[in-house]
Amino acid sequence: xxxxxxxxxxxxxxxxxxxxxxxxxxxxxxxxxxxxxxxxxxxxxxxxxxxxxxxxxxxxxxxxxxxxxxxxxxxxxxxxxxxxxxxxxxxxxxxxxxxxxxxxxxxxxxxxxxxxxxxxxxxxxxxxxxxxxxxxxxxxxxxxxxxxxxxxxxxxxxxxxxxxxxxxxxxxxxxxxxxxxxxxxxxxxxxxxxxxxxxxxxxxxxxxxxxxxxxxxxxxxxxxxxxxxxxxxxxxxxxxxxxxxxxxxxxxxxxxxxxxxxxxxxxxxxxxxxxxxxxxxxxxxxxxxxxxxxxxxxxxxxxxxxxxxxxxxxxxxxxxxxxxxxxxxxxxxxxxxxxxxxxxxxxxxxxxxxxxxxxxxxxxxxxxxxxxxxxxxxxxxxxxxxxxxxxxxxxxxxxxxxxxxxxxxxxxxxxxxxxxxxxx
Length: 424
Fold this sequence. Notes:
Blueprint: H1 2-24, E1 32-33, E2 40-41, E3 51-57, E4 63-69, E5 76-82, E6 93-95, E7 102-108, E8 114-122, E9 125-134, E10 137-146, E11 150-157, E12 161-168, E13 176-183, E14 193-196, E15 201-209, E16 215-223, E17 228-238, E18 243-245, E19 249-250, E20 259-266, E21 271-279, E22 286-295, E23 305-306, E24 312-313, E25 325-328, E26 334-340, E27 349-355, E28 366-367, E29 377-384, E30 389-396, E31 402-408, E32 412-413
Antiparallel strand pairs: 1-32, 2-31, 3-4, 4-5, 5-6, 7-8, 8-9, 9-10, 11-12, 12-13, 13-14, 15-16, 16-17, 17-18, 17-19, 20-21, 21-22, 22-23, 22-24, 25-26, 26-27, 27-28, 29-30, 30-31
C-alpha cells in the first residue's frame, strides 16, 4: 500500500511541476507555437467595402485597429479597440470624413493618444487629413490641400513632434516623397518639403522611429530607364529647428529589376528591419519575400536575403503585390506577414514566418487565413504585444463587399517529460 501511495504522490508532484513549467514557458521564444485563433470579422460592416487595415499594440496590451469603409455611402475612417488581447473588440467607431477617404495610417504617442492621417478627396481637391482621438470624438484638420493626387501617407510620433510622409505631385509630373511635422501637443504643420527629388515616381512610403526619435523611411521607386522598380531607404535626424535627411540608398540594386511594397521597423537595439517583395523573373505576378537588416550606425554593404519558401503568386483580386508587413516582439524576434497563393491555394491567403536570429534562418511559412475557394485575402498588418502576434487583413467577398479579419497567435507552451521514481 505504501508503494502505491508514494507512486501516486510522485505523479501528483510531477503534474504540479509540469503545470508550473508550462506557465513559466509561456513567454519562451524557443518554445513551440501551437497555432492561431479562429479568424473573426472585426469590421462588421455588412455589404460594404472595408479596406486597408492598420493595427497597433500599446504598452498596456490593448490593441487598436483602423480601416476605411463605405457603409454610410462614402469612404470614412473606422476605429475599433480590444482590451483583452484581441479576444473581443469594441463596436466600430465611425469617424465622419468627406466624400472619398482612404489609405489610413495611425500611431500612438507616449501618452497613448491616437493620431491618424489619411488621403481625402472631393470633386475639386485632394487633401492630406489628420485627426487626434480623444474619448468619443476625433479632432480633424487638413495638413495639405492640393489639386494634385496624394498617395499613401504614413505617420509617426516622437516625444516632441508628429511626422508625416506621403507621395504627392505638388510640383512635377512624378510622385515625389514629401514630409511635414508639427509639435505633438499643438501648433502648425511645417510647409511640406521634398525628401528626395529623384526625377521618377516615389510611392508606397513607410516611416518608422528609432530609440533616439530619428526617422527611417522606405519606399518604392519607379525608374524610367531602364524600366524597373527599386526599394529605397533614407534616414532623418530630428532636431529642434528641422529634420535633416541622409542621402538615399538603393537596397535592391543587385536584385531583380522589380521590387515592391516595402515595410520597416526599428528595434530598441537600433537595428533596422525591412521586408519587401521581389518579382520572380519570367513568372508574372509571382514574388519572393526579401528581408534586409542593418544597424542604424552602418548602412554600408546592406545585403537583402530571400525568406526561404516565401514565393507566392498574387491573383490581382486585391493587391497585385505580396504586401508584406514586419514587426518585432519583446525578444527582437522578427515576424513577417504577406499575401499570395502557394501550393494548392485557390485564392490569396495570408502567410506568416518568423526569425529568432535577425534573418539568418526562418520558420517555414504557414497560412494564417483559412483556405477558401472564393475569397482573396490581402493587405495584412501585424503587431506584437511582447508575447502574442496580432494580424489583421482585408478579405474580399462578393462584388465590392470586403471585410477586415483579425487573428492572434495562441500562447506558447513547452511540455517537459514526466519522470517517476520508485520509492519502494
